[in-house]
């Protein structure tokens, strides 16, 4: 394995654009107002256009090191206590570089997908956003947001990103979870906190893991043989364009005439020979449509009861990417532009067969009717007609794709583009909020998550680096439960297993503060503060409560199952004052039924009249966990669990690294 000195030297060489610069140059994550990690050796490196030596000065320390033949230098200062602001001065015989306002404190790398990315106010808005922004004057907290970039090779430079002092003027677009996490640490520890926000919504975990780590991992190495060697970004674009061109040529063979497509809205048009696909879902989920941009018509028939005919009806068509025109029995219902807007229109149904036709235009990226299944229905008074399920579809127009390479299109694109630049930098630890994009492979996540942690610990050269993450919250992804199966329950289990088996890791349970109808719940304060409590307890050895009740063991006696818990704190309670909910029992037939639950000390006793001979118990095993209300008296919720190991619905789903 390369030494850290040789790695830093190599990084320094890649910084060079010319060796005749007037002053030393540092990697550009070094900057004014930055935070350097306290209590660890301070590594300063870069390039110089000179020969001889480079001198580095910080807080009274001065060290000199030789410039190597290729212009690189590396200086290591002794650890410093928290403090500042200081000037960091790097000089050679021709000039000097001075960084102003540098603090010594704790640096945390904050990453994941959209729930970590979600700002205090912007494309999403947290609870009490205006008040939080107004009060965000914390000069001891420094912020760095990494520009979104994909790359097939590890990058060594950021793209003009710079550190900022936390203030009401700049906090609004910053990661809300990271901010609330850092604020709690700064308030409790009274030391400077540096927060690096490296996030990208909708991204899969494999995008954040290095190509080498995936290729050498016992679980992933077989599938990674399909992409054994990293390729240049230009080669990847060429391969994408070739693939999409071939797909488009195939689709062009079967396009309708203009006269035929003009009839698609009509109720009496015969669409029985059209292809079908499940809705909701982007049409990219169909392998032969994976790169399609253009226009697609969708049609679905619903049979309406006589008593609902002629009455006002509300048509909930979910979210449609990008633009759409909707028709009922040939008459216009409405039209909307925008990929993430809920379509809700009014109309009147007739008795018997009714036909809904939707013309969808996709201008780039994903396309189709992709809203949540709970958003797809027609309502007449108290009656509902579901629109979830099989729809017929027909392509009207194929357009030249403008799709760029996305972060999930190939392995490691975000590790290379948004993590690799920090190699050699000392940090205190990392926090992570991701998993929604991997829920369909929830069982596999028990391999992916530990691999990410070990990969990043190697990257930051700290095998015991604290790594704290958020378990997925309550959200109605697909009406999942113990009967139908729940992908979200399965990925939560994988996250729990990671927290239990990976040293120096911890998990914040937030199933009590989600929103069943919003994948981006607005309560980010509690999320960040729960992560901070775990860090305070585990990393800083503070006497704070940082866990809810944790499943420990179970026993069966007759028709009763007794669940024992650890981390019960001051005692178990139903946090809303109601009867305990969320518990289920099953017998040998593997059919689960709600269970009556009674607290007895640090245990919960379960029984169900529908299960006279129970063999398994589950808690909060569903997409939506709103009725799961067990917590400790300290206010921390119990996490989901099960006592069985019966195969779930995602166990056979595997990562495919080939170019999308």
From TrEMBL:
Q: Could you tell me what this protein is called?
A: Sialate O-acetylesterase
For the biological process aspect of GO, one term held by this record is: carbohydrate metabolic process
Domain of life according to the entry: Bacteria
Q: Which PANTHER family match?
A: SIALATE O-ACETYLESTERASE (PTHR22901:SF0)
Q: Which GO terms describe its molecular function?
A: sialate O-acetylesterase activity
Where are the annotated coiled coils located?
none
UniProt cross-references to InterPro entries, sorted A to Z: Galactose-bd-like_sf, SASA, SGNH_hydro_sf, SIAE
| Domain Sialate O-acetylesterase residue range list | 106-229, 418-533
- Native source species: Pseudobacter ginsenosidimutans
Q: Which Pfam families match?
A: SASA
Q: Which UniProt keywords apply?
A: Hydrolase, Signal
Residues annotated as signal peptide: 1-22
